[in-house]
Inverse folding.
């Protein structure tokens, strides 16, 4: 078999279009169409079929897509010179999807670690709005950092740290006029943090077991927005214990223990298996692992 056909097959499976695949490969649609004919004869499958004005992959083509992409990336890794991890000439961009709260605490120390060892490397941080998408599988994100859920089944993961939740309110909030028990905590107005607009979570289940229910006055998509709201009103939100204490003080905020049992936040990193043996990616994971553990409150 002509192994060059794998490159054409990859382009076809990524683009679902003969014309776009030809543009991607820098060749003519006629050449790609001939290659598609050869691929169909070789595999015994039509691979792409017409559906109205578009072409759609067959079930076998869908199964082949990631396998073909992985084969080509492994071939590139075999033929390309492998950079030594941390070498000054490592010229590479690493893309990480991180929540805003983790980013605020980790972006600066992680960037400094990377710059110190590989000054030509570039870090790109993407918001958690792409969480739950196939970004890792598609290769648009190298690493996901945070609470890991909604991952593709083949995704590799590693637990990094566990951080308890605490409540936070402005320093002169009326709650602090006395002991903050579960009843007074539930009676306060709260800020929910959810990108999907969810108003309830584990803390509500814990309160319900005591016959209590809190009122969520507003739901915002980020921790930063919640903290900025809490600084100016009689609203309570949640944050990670020991996270950004100087920033909270500067905002006039005060943390306090949640008066009901709530599970800690489990922080980990996830990546696609195509990167597991990549030396550069291994080095980047080492930097993330060290940065998270050195900046986790439990390690201070």
């Amino acid at each position: 078999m002509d192994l060059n056909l794998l490159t054409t097959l990859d382009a076809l499976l990524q683009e679902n279009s003969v014309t776009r695949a030809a543009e991607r490969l820098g060749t003519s649609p006629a050449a790609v169409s001939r290659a598609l004919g050869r691929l169909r004869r070789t595999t015994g499958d039509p691979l792409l079929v017409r559906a109205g004005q578009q072409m759609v992959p067959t079930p076998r083509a869908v199964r082949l897509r990631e396998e073909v992409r992985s084969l080509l990336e492994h071939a590139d890794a075999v033929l390309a010179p492998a950079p030594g991890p941390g070498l000054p000439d490592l010229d590479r961009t690493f893309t990480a999807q991180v929540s805003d709260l983790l980013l605020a605490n980790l972006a600066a120390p992680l960037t400094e670690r990377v710059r110190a060892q590989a000054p030509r490397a570039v870090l790109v941080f993407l918001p958690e709005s792409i969480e739950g998408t196939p970004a890792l599988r598609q290769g648009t994100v190298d690493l996901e950092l945070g609470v890991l859920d909604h991952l593709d089944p083949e995704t590799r993961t590693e637990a990094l740290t566990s951080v308890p939740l605490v409540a936070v309110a402005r320093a002169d909030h009326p709650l602090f006029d006395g002991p903050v028990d579960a009843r007074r905590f539930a009676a306060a107005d709260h800020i929910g943090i959810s990108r999907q607009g969810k108003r309830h979570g584990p803390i509500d289940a814990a309160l319900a077991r005591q016959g209590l229910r809190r009122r969520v006055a507003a739901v915002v998509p980020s921790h930063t927005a919640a903290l900025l709201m809490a600084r100016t009103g009689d609203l309570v939100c949640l944050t990670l214990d020991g996270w950004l204490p100087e920033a909270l003080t500067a905002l006039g905020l005060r943390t306090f223990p949640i008066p009901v049992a709530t599970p800690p936040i489990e922080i980990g990193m996830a990546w696609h298996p195509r990167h597991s043996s990549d030396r550069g990616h291994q080095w980047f994971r080492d930097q993330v692992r060290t940065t998270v553990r050195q900046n986790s409150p439990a390690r201070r």
About this structure: Residues 82 and 245 are 41 Å apart (CA to CA). The mean pLDDT is 88. The chain has eleven helices and twelve strands.
